[in-house]
Design a protein that fits this description.
Layout lengths: L2 H12 L5 H8 L3 H13 L19 E8 L5 H12 L4 E6 L6 E7 L2 H14 L4 E6 L30
């Protein structure tokens, strides 16, 4: 990956529906080389998929709940069953295994507290969990799907000569 790829990725993270010719023009490439770069980024798995980001309020999923889970079971069998169970819930939009005091963190999107309660009851009926703690988001201050790209390129050595693009 080089600086040109990073420029293309910045644009695609903001709006993946932009025409390749338009992206190429913005980054200083003609359409075909720009398209080839996008294809290589897709083939390499850097670009995993292109999606539409929906307004949670407009699709009646505007309540965000962060669910902290602690378990007293640490067998591979339980872990696999838990992963399968959680993955089957469409309300779970993010799912992480954590270090520290909690074992798992889920971000759940539901229309209201009653819907979360129904989700919670289905979850605990599917698998044994030692402790569940739920925190309802009161306000979304920042939300983005764009990853920071300043880390994508290797750092230049402080004493190495700067290269001039051709």
């Amino acid at each position: 990956m080089d600086e040109m790829d990073v420029k293309i990725l910045r644009i695609l993270q903001q709006d993946c529906t932009r025409a390749v010719a338009e992206i190429g023009k913005e980054v200083g490439l003609s359409t075909t080389p720009c398209w080839r770069r996008v294809q290589k980024l897709e083939e390499a798995g850097v670009i995993q998929r292109r999606v539409a980001i929906l307004d949670a309020q407009q699709v009646n999923a505007g309540v965000t709940v962060f669910v902290s889970i602690k378990t007293d079971k640490h067998s591979l069998d339980w872990l696999e069953k838990f992963h399968v169970a959680v993955a089957e819930f469409p309300e779970v939009v993010e799912f992480y295994r954590m270090s520290g005091d909690i074992d798992y963190l889920l971000r759940v999107a539901v229309p209201d507290i009653a819907a979360y309660d129904a989700f919670y009851k289905k979850l605990i009926s599917r698998i044994a969990i030692a402790k569940v703690s739920s925190a309802f988001a009161m306000e979304q201050i920042k939300y983005t799907t764009a990853l920071p790209l300043q880390f994508a390129l290797p750092k230049r050595e402080a004493n190495s000569p700067q290269t001039v693009p051709a």
